[in-house]
Amino acid sequence: DIRGFIFDLDGVLTDTAEYHYLAWQKLADEEGLPFSRDANEALRGVSRRESLLYIVGDRKYSEAQLQEMMDRKNRYYVESIQNISPQDLLPGVVTLLDELKQAGIKIALGSASKNARTVIEKLGIANRIDAIADGYSVQRPKPAPDLFLYAAKQLGLEPAQSVVVEDAEAGIEAALAGGMWAIGLGPASRVGAAHIVLPSLAGVHWSDLHAKLNELVI
Ligand code: BG6
Ligand code: MG
Known about the structure:
Layout: E1 4-7, H1 16-31, H2 37-40, H3 48-56, H4 63-80, H5 93-102, E2 106-110, H6 116-123, E3 131-133, H7 146-155, E4 162-166, H8 169-177, E5 181-185, H9 188-191, E6 196-198, H10 206-217
Parallel strand pairs: 1-2, 1-4, 2-3, 4-5, 5-6
The structure holds 6-O-phosphono-beta-D-glucopyranose (BG6) and magnesium ion.
């Protein structure tokens, strides 16, 4: 049976995906690198370094320059999240977290971000989370399953007892590669490989998810 939920952060619990995008766009503009909101879709859930390498493309930079650009983007991002508050939790999140707690289901964070702890503290949900897997936890980024396997292990659960909630294609791939249940939030073009696809967590209840997951087991 399902014993744990592992939530991605950016684009799932809060809309920081937008702030990540704006910070990369600012950096790309400064460097004269082609980048757009469209191109950014490929960067959902992708680590800081992999994102930069994608934006840089064929342009040659030294390791020191790459490092400086990653630091610069992060400064822009950190600046933009200063005023995040519980009001920035996406619709449906608090209800679902409450219902899961009520049902005795453990909660973990599974985010590629090194800013994940700061963000959940600002969102006021740090005390609801039993384990954190973030940008410091494992080496191999999503779509490798390592981050989610680490999260499940922290919860003391098997992959098959765990549900991952993700908005990124790389995140769904990671969950499936880890042998977990996957709930994808967003268009099927992005998260269609998930077991359950929903537009967002708004109006989503544990009882409905539980019923759908049970159907899949049979
Ligand atoms: C993921 C975001 O959660 O974390 C990505 O979806 C981001 O957009 C990645 O690049 C790494 O985040 P950070 O805060 O460590 O640069
Ligand atoms: Mg995400």
